Amino acid sequence: MKKLLFLLIAILCLSISSLAFAEEHLHVALITNQNTCEFRTNSDCSVLTEDGEYSLKKGKYFVHIKDGKLAFDKNIIFSDNIIITNDNEKKFFTVNQRSYKGKLRISIEDGNILVINDIPLETYLESVVPTKVMPIWPDEAIKAQAVAARTYALYSKMTANTSYDLKATDSELRYLGTGKEIEKNDITKLVQATAGEYLVDNYGRPINAISTSSSGGRTEAVEGFAYLQSVKDFDEDSPDNKWEKRVSPFILQNYLEQGGHAIGKLKSILLSPMNEKGSDRSISGRVRYLIVTGDKGSAKLSGEEIAKLMDLPSSLFDLKTGVPAPEKMDIPVLTNYGYEVGSKEMPIKVNESDKPVWSDLRKAYHLIGDDKEEQLTFKGKARGHGCGLSSWGARGMANADEKTKYKDILKHYYPGTTLIAN
After folding, report:
1. C-alpha to C-alpha distance for 20 and 28, rounded to whole angstroms
2. What CA–CA distance (Å, rounded) separates 90 from 122?
3. Which pLDDT tens digits describe the chain residue by residue (422 residues)?
4. Which helix (H) or strand (E) holds 150?
């Protein structure tokens, strides 16, 4: 009898837990630190305030602050905190020309307008997962990404210290709202196939399941997170497996000055080669820091900072300085009598050594001269921070072996974690 009673209680608790998770909502900040926004509704909707409930006719409104309250156009004024709901689930709200499901909370915070979308977690995932994967990818790779995204969202909710859980512009999960160009049916089905599944650490808490597009062969470890280790990646097919960007020293000098590093005219950059992994590089070869020196001083920048400054795909790169060899040249076309009748473009191949002629002096020193043609050449691989689940790596694992399941992929990229299925 006691065993039967215990079993009934366990089933009841599990049912309550599953129901609670199914109803899990996220509060996503759509607009922060703005003094106006455009709001549109295609049907009449309800506005709940501290003073009661009002009806708002369908149409377009410009929301702003007037006398400490929220004003919709000139004549409709509410309190400083409202909730807008729509009884018709097929109708959506539009904020700054993007459509959203769920409820909207609009309030005044620090003198500015704050717009929060209250949306079911699973509905949110149907919007954000397509920004990380493609519908034609293997199902198991997409499922792995769905579980990682759900876990990251729950981790963000658990650790949030603001009135919202995360922003629509979150660097990990870009939330673009709803629409045919955003949600993909094939991906939605796979998100639904993993509904309620997320990863936890040894204490049963959702993990910080960050993910990256590709890592360049090996993911990056994150200090303080035992499950974010450096592991082999399978992202060979990534379009960012090899990239190159060239800029003049003057461009970098300008960016440095705008970023508060007034070092003057650029003279040198100190960075060890990727294959030698000095103390300025991580175990995977990513740039931890580099030192730029000008005629007025020096500055130490992190790899992520220089990648953002120069709009590089990642911080996994090598650097070369000097005048690059031309990639092509025009060859004159002559007749049998020696008359020039045109020209033909011919590619030029130069077998450049990876090591400069002065490499024996100090391989990490990249000197910059006064030649107007001189350029800085960044040669790298990977896209993103390189930590956690690699989207292209997950695709590679699934393609390499048809027996690979999404649970295997998650176990590889987040070692030591447990998959919870509600």
Report:
1. 19
2. 17
3. 433 333 333 333 333 333 344 469 999 999 999 999 999 998 888 999 988 898 888 999 999 999 999 999 988 889 999 999 976 666 789 999 999 999 999 999 999 999 999 999 999 999 999 999 999 999 999 999 999 999 999 999 999 999 999 999 999 999 999 999 999 999 999 999 999 999 999 999 999 999 999 999 999 999 999 999 999 999 999 999 999 999 999 999 999 999 899 899 999 999 999 988 789 999 899 999 999 999 999 999 999 999 999 999 999 999 998 755 445 545 555 565 545 556 666 664 545 444 443 343 357 888 887 777 889 999 999 999 999 999 999 999 999 999 999 999 999 999 999 999 87
4. helix 139-159
Q: For the chain, what's the residue count?
A: 422
Tokens at 83, concatenated: 């909730």
How do 166-167 and 25-34 pair as beta strands? parallel
Q: Which two tokens stand for residue 26?
A: 């996220």
Output the pTM of the full model. Answer: 0.83
State the sign of the Cα–Cα–Cα–Cα dihedral 252, 253, 255, 259: positive
CA gyration radius for the chain? 27
Judge contact between 380 and 316, C-beta under 8 A.
yes
H or E stretch including 250? helix 249-258
Among 83, 383, 352, 53, smallest CA distance to 213 is for 383
- Asked if residues 410 and 185 have their Cβ atoms less than 8 Å apart, the reply is no
- 259-265 long-range CB contacts below 8 Å, 24 or more apart? 259/305, 259/309, 261/292, 261/299, 261/301, 262/296, 262/297, 263/292, 263/293, 263/294, 263/295, 263/296, 263/297, 263/298, 263/299, 264/294, 264/295, 264/296, 264/297, 265/294, 265/295, 265/296
What are the φ/ψ torsions at residue 183 (nearest 5 degrees)?
-85, 135
